[in-house]
Amino acid sequence: MDYKDRIRALREDNDYTQTKIANILNIGQRTYADYEYGKTRIPVDALIKLAKFYDVDMNYISGVSNKRNKFPAE
């Protein structure tokens, strides 16, 4: 699973709309939809923000690992 599938799955599993997640990232809904559809690559800072929001580590949200670990404490 790559990052675009992972961010969509996380959003759907939590019953969030694309608009809600777009607001968290301070972007438009269409831009966020482009991230999920793979039309636009998601910036690393947005991926980090989503990882913190969903409390998952970067390896999981980026699709590198299927093991769901919590986001590291600061």
Automatic annotation (TrEMBL):
In terms of InterPro entries, this protein maps to: Cro/C1-type_HTH (IPR001387), Lambda_DNA-bd_dom_sf (IPR010982)
Q: Do the record's keywords include DNA-binding?
A: yes
Domain HTH cro/C1-type: residue ranges = 7-61
Kindly give the Pfam families that the UniProt entry links to this protein: HTH_3
Q: Name the CDD domains for this protein.
A: HTH_XRE
Write down the SMART domains for this protein, in alphabetical order: HTH_XRE (SM00530)
Q: Keywords of this protein's UniProt record, alphabetized?
A: DNA-binding
Question: Which SUPFAM superfamilies does the protein's record reference?
Answer: lambda repressor-like DNA-binding domains (SSF47413)
Among its keywords, does the record have DNA-binding? yes
GO molecular function terms here?
A: DNA binding
Q: Which domain of life is it from?
A: Bacteria
Recorded hits in PANTHER family, A to Z, give: HTH-TYPE TRANSCRIPTIONAL REGULATOR ANSR, TRACRIPTIONAL REGULATORY PROTEIN-RELATED-RELATED
Report what the protein is called: Helix-turn-helix domain-containing protein
Q: Which organism is it from?
A: Sporofaciens musculi
